[in-house]
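Long-time lurker. I teach an intro course on protein structure, and each term I like to show students one example going from raw sequence to a predicted 3D structure in C-alpha cell notation. This year I'd like something fresh instead of my usual example. Would anyone be willing to generate the C-alpha cells for the chain below so I can use it in lecture? Attribution to the forum is fine with me.
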Amino acid sequence: MRRHGGFPHWIRVAAGLRADEAVVARVESGDALPRHEGFAGVIVTGSGAMVTERRDWSERSAQWLREAAHAGVPLFGICYGHQLLAHALGGEVGDHPQGREMGTIGLELHPQAGDDPLFAGLPAQFPAQATHLQTVLRAPDGATVLAQSVHDACHAFRWGDNAWGVQFHPEFSAAHMRGYVHARREALAQEGRDWRAMSASVTAAPQARRVLRRFVKHARGGVRGR
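-- Reply from a regular --
Happy to contribute to a lecture. Here you go:
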C-alpha cells in the first residue's frame, strides 16, 4: 500500500486529473482549509479516523462542508468523506450494527438513481470496493439515497444538486482492495472471517470508478473531463 501512495494520489489518478489540477489540503495534519471560491469542486477522502470521535480538525471540516454545500459548491465525499458530509448536513453517523463491510461488494441502485447526474445509465447492480466500520445510519433531511448493498442501506446519497456521498471507494483498484484486506487480515480473522477467500474474491469495479469521473465532469460543468 505504501508503494501505491495515499488517498489524494489514488483519487486524483482515478479521477483522471493531472497533478496541477488538484490542490490537496491535509487538514488532519494541520493544513488550513482553503476558501471555497476558485474551485470547480471538492473531493473529501477516506480517513483512518472516525466521524464519531468529533476531532477538532474533523468538526472544522464538517462546518466547512456545510457552508460549501449551502453555497452550491460541488462536493463528493468518499467513505469517511461520505460520513462527514452526512454529519455536516444533519444526518446521523455511527458504528454499523453488523460490523465491518470489506472487499468487493455488490451495489444495488435505487430507481431514483436513474435521474442522477452521476449514476444515470449505470447497471442496476455493479461491483464496488468497500472497507468501513462506521456508516450513515440516517441520511440528512432532504437527501436522496441512491444505492445500497446487502450490508449497508446508504451506500450513496445526493443532497441538493451538487453534493454526493459514497460509502464505497471508487478510487480503489483491485490491487488497492487486496492490499487493504491483507492489512486487516488479523482483525478479519478475529471476526471469524476468511481474509484469504475475501482477497481471492476481489474483482475490478470499473462502473464505480465512472461515478468519480462523472463527478469531475459535473463539477466542470460538463465541458471538460471524462
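Some talking points for your students: The two ends are 27 Å apart (CA to CA). Residues 222-226 have pLDDT under 50 and may be disordered.
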